[in-house]
Write a structure and sequence with these properties.
This protein is mostly helical. The protein has a single domain (about 1-105), classed as UDP-galactose 4-epimerase, domain 1 (Alpha-Beta Complex), CATH 3.90.25. The chain has helices spanning about 1-5, 25-40, 55-65, 90-95, 105-120, 120-125; strands spanning about 10-15, 20, 55, 75. The longest helix is centred in the last third of the chain and has 14 residues, at about 105-120.
């Protein structure tokens, strides 16, 4: 969502002060976890995460460092029910699926920007 808005030169709406954290995982890591679950005939639920918290402000700084030098932010009131901190314990996936994330957040962001730009004609059509 942020990359789409930044590519269009739009301001980013940040709900809260930007210190809220999330556990970001690159999509290929999530796909691999799903494939391993199928391969292992696993049942039940698995947390798929890096175990690392990244604040929204840190994420935006990383995006600015990678490509988007001029980012306009609109800090908005936090929404009811928003989670302040999020970090997943993926130990069950480590143990049962032998899964661990391969991509760092920086690699994932870089690849996501590349993929977004490659798909830009399709995205702009929609």
């Amino acid at each position: 969502m942020f990359i789409h808005q930044l590519e269009r030169g739009q301001a980013l709406n940040i709900y809260g002060d930007g210190h809220q954290t999330r556990d970001f995982v690159y999509v290929k890591d999530v796909v691999m976890a799903n494939l391993l679950a199928i391969e292992h005939n696993s049942v039940g639920t698995f947390n798929i995460g890096s175990g690392k918290e990244t604040s929204v402000n840190e994420l935006i700084k990383k995006l600015a460092d990678l490509k988007y030098k001029h980012v306009t932010l609109n800090y908005c009131p936090m929404r009811s029910g928003d989670i302040v901190r999020s970090s997943l314990n993926a130990s069950r996936a480590h143990e049962r699926l032998k899964w661990r994330p391969v991509y760092t957040i920086d690699e994932g962001l870089h690849r996501t920007i590349q993929q977004y730009n490659a798909a830009k004609p399709i995205v702009n059509f929609v």
